[in-house]
Amino acid sequence: xxxxxxxxxxxxxxxxxxxxxxxxxxxxxxxxxxxxxxxxxxxxxxxxxxxxxxxxxxxxxxxxxxxxxxxxxxxxxxxxxxxxxxxxxxxxxxxxxxxxxxxxxxxxxxxxxxxxxxxxxxxxxxxxxxxxxxxxxxxxxxxxxxxxxxxxxxxxxxxxxxxxxxxxxxxxxxxxxxxxxxxxxxxxxxxxxxxxxxxxxxxxxxxxxxxxxxxxxxxxxxxxxxxxxxxxxxxxxxxxxxxxxxxxxxxxxxxxxxxxxxxxxxxxxxxxxxxxxxxxxxxxxxxxxxxxxxxxxxxxxx
Length: 302
Known about the structure:
Elements: E1 7-12, H1 13-16, H2 18-21, H3 25-36, E2 43-46, H4 54-63, E3 68-72, H5 89-108, E4 113-116, H6 126-143, E5 148-151, H7 167-179, E6 185-190, H8 201-208, E7 212-217, H9 246-259, E8 268-272, H10 282-301
Parallel strand pairs: 1-2, 1-8, 2-3, 3-4, 4-5, 5-6, 6-7, 7-8
């Protein structure tokens, strides 16, 4: 069972190269170019810088590539945080305007999927926040009917503290958006987030199965809150005090094979989403992450 026949494998560029590209659009472009040329990967999880000439150079490069682009929307350095379900109308309108600008870039590179998150948790007004979040996603889906809009559930009380903090809640949002006439809404599973959401891999993948459109392979440190890499830091596979290594990646593959997500027909998508340690070279680190992913696939099918 060659993995190339059963899945589309990708990598998250802006986490892999985080220390190299922070505030540097040239480095963003050059590191992305290196990954575009890496034939091991079918998918790029990424975003396009807004400043020229690298906005245009990035768009042109991606249009000439054969990669599937999954565009990542989210908070950008130096900009106000996004809050799609805020009780403050001005914050909601600001968030929507940022997303619409990102959508322009996503469409320009022919992105097939858009990765989003729910914004900050609201403990006291969750029901109203859920309603506002559904409204936000309906508008987003209507603005890009050719694209699959994905919500990425994140923890609601441990690290990032987002509104949608369980796999089932994300599916509930998807179904409400579907009921509003927008079929292009889906969910995903991120291994880094799952322990922080108080879930197991089996629970997350089972709860999400009906709306699953993408998986992030990753890891986190959960049990030592004093650890500098505690929480939603996307630490490498197998790190000391971490939750996951090859065996758990293999578990994801087994569950996906059994559900039909990883099959010759569906070729489900999965991306490596890891931030290398500060002293690690991203090229060498990516080789290690890729090798562990393939090792896990072989373990899953045996």
